[in-house]
Task: inverse folding
């Protein structure tokens, strides 16, 4: 990943993608109350966290994903699934690094793995990346934290101020060097993997009626704890050496076990109420 990202073509078979989409459609029909406040006027869902825990066919596209060999090589051990985000429309998210909310000790024990479940081009919100942005000089997070939070013991796990200040510092580095974002167009079954320090975001979703179904998988080696901005901005904060969550086996891979599915950070429901395992 010399550019900070890699595109793995046909990493998931088209039949596996189709089964995942059938499972998602069945889930939506079976649980209209769960999705009602999340879907837009076109019925498109946005940022559903850990939907793979309810739909086995969606977990399959992780476990049967040939792009994971690249992740295994990067980590030097097998990749496991920590969490996922399911989208049916473009995120349109500003350029950012994941590291403030996917902080690992040691660093770089996390990768983003983005699976296209639709063909994606400039019309329906493709991913955009800033090539080689993972090689930029390290941001002085200690100085940033002292400015925002003079007492490091009170840094919250989630902080818009901390997030925005860090991303602005990375954007400034890119601007100084004339580094520009570019869109990545892919087809169903293709996977994009990005480095933890890759500056990336979502392009505008111009043709609103077109879906842009995708699954973002956050992968780590088994047992690696993932911390948030309180640890990212205070690297000396004592943290657990092992993840607090357990894993279950799905095919030849392991998946972290959580109890809830989050619909766009507006409401959560227990996995046991939403299980749709028949595919």
Result:
């Amino acid at each position: 990943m010399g550019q900070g990202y890699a595109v793995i073509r046909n990493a998931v078979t088209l039949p596996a993608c189709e089964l995942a989409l059938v499972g998602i459609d069945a889930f939506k029909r079976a649980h209209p109350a769960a999705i009602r406040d999340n879907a837009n006027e076109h019925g498109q869902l946005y940022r559903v966290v850990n939907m793979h825990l309810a739909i086995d066919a969606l977990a399959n596209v992780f476990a049967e994903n040939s792009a994971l060999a690249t992740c295994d090589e990067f980590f030097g051990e097998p990749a496991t699934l920590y969490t996922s985000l399911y989208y049916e429309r473009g995120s349109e998210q500003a350029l950012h690094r994941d590291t403030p909310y996917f902080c690992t000790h040691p660093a770089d024990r996390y990768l983003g793995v983005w699976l296209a479940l639709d063909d994606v081009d400039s019309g329906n919100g493709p991913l955009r990346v800033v090539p080689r942005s993972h090689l930029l000089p390290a941001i002085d997070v200690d100085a940033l934290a002292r400015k925002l939070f003079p007492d490091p013991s009170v840094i919250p796990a989630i902080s818009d101020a901390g997030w925005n200040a860090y991303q602005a510092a990375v954007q400034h580095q890119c601007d100084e060097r004339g580094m520009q974002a570019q869109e990545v167009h892919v087809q169903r079954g293709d996977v994009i993997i990005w480095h933890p320090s890759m500056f990336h975001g979502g392009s505008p979703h111009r043709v609103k009626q077109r879906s842009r179904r995708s699954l973002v998988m956050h992968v780590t080696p088994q047992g690696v704890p993932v911390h948030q901005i309180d640890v990212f901005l205070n690297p000396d904060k004592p943290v657990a050496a092992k993840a607090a969550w357990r894993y279950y086996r799905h095919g030849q891979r392991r998946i972290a076990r959580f109890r809830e599915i989050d619909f766009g950070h507006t409401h959560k429901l227990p996995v046991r109420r939403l299980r749709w395992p028949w595919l």
About this structure: Helices lie at 14-30, 32-35, 56-63, 68-75, 141-148, 160-177, 229-232, 271-274. The mean pLDDT is 96. The longest strand covers residues 79-87.
